[in-house]
């Protein structure tokens, strides 16, 4: 049961990152505009981030599907998901209503920040669950 759950969570994360990368890879300029709206990075870092982050998500998805570098892929998944969640919290705390940019580069009048937080909180929990089952539990003496 535990290996099946870990595999299911890992494949869920792989699908999540693969889907998230597609539109951003296709439209880096639009993704850069969304990153800029977050006001969390120096302006000089925005173009680089807009190009590199989607490809990192795509490679991460592949690593999660293949099970290669499992520990690193799961750690990076959780780190990215926590960073994304924290960026949403920061914008909500500052009263900014921005387009999430999570799965689409279409810009609009922002979005439902509370929904983004709930959804991304679920993603963080899925990532932590996969990491716990795939890394930490395997390392424990009882795992």
TrEMBL record:
One of its GO terms (cellular component) is membrane. It holds the Pfam family MauE. Residues 6-132 form the Methylamine utilisation protein MauE domain. One of its GO terms (biological process) is methylamine metabolic process. The keyword Magnesium does not apply. InterPro entries: Methylamine_util_MauE. Keywords: Membrane, Transmembrane, Transmembrane helix. It is a multi-pass membrane protein. Coiled coil: none annotated. Its main location: membrane. The chain crosses the membrane at residues 44-66, 73-93, 113-133. It is found in: Membrane. This is Putative methylamine utilization protein maue. It comes from hydrocarbon metagenome. The lineage of its organism: unclassified sequences, metagenomes, ecological metagenomes.
